[in-house]
Amino acid sequence: MEKTAAIKTMRWVYLALFFALLGAVVLLHAIPKPFLDVIRLPTFIRAGEPYLGFPYDSSLLIYQITLLFFVFVTLVDAISLFLFSSNPMKKISAYSSLIGFTLMAAVFMYFLYSFFVIDIENNLLVTVAIYLALSLVLMMLDLLTFILDEQLIWHLGVKKNR
């Protein structure tokens, strides 16, 4: 695929991801339980507390901050890909992709840990599997942003050796 066509596709993927995340958050907050309980992360955090050993209140706060930050980073990525022809926007895209990748890597590690700690018969594993797959896909999406434009990494300030 040609680089400009791939970037055009990625900008719409990021924009669709932003609206999907926003829609999911609104939907899960607007409709009461037990609607889609399997993807409600606060329910997982409370039920998983005995297995994981993380206190509910601090885990919920970290989840909320991470979610809001990732939604913001996704929006910044979408906007920067729409204005990708300018160097400052390439730099913003590089940093937001790096932050998004790092954030999703941490989320992936949390769910990977959860996967190994929670009993195999427990219903929580469905939630873990969903978020493990989702975090892996989102992590790869940020990595793909770098692959689309191999010069993007140089906008992070890394010196190129020749």
General description of the model:
The protein has five helices and no strands. The protein has one domain (3-156). Helix content is 76%, strand content 0%. The protein is elongated. It has helices at residues 3-30, 41-52, 56-82, 87-117, 124-148. 20% of the residues are buried. The mean pLDDT is 83.
Could you outline the blueprint of secondary structure elements for this entry?
Layout: H1 3-30, H2 41-52, H3 56-82, H4 87-117, H5 124-148
Helix pairs in contact: 1-3, 2-3, 3-4, 4-5
Provide the succession of SSEs. Answer: HHHHH
What amount of the residues lies in strands? under 5%
The main β sheet shows up as: none
Which residues form runs of ≥5 with pLDDT under 50?
none
Oligomeric category: single chain
Helix content: over 70%
Kindly, what is the distance between the CA atoms of the first and last residues, rounded to a whole number of angstroms?
A: 27 Å
- The total of beta strands comes to 0
What is the total number of structural domains?
1
Q: Helix segment count?
A: 5
Average pLDDT rating: 83
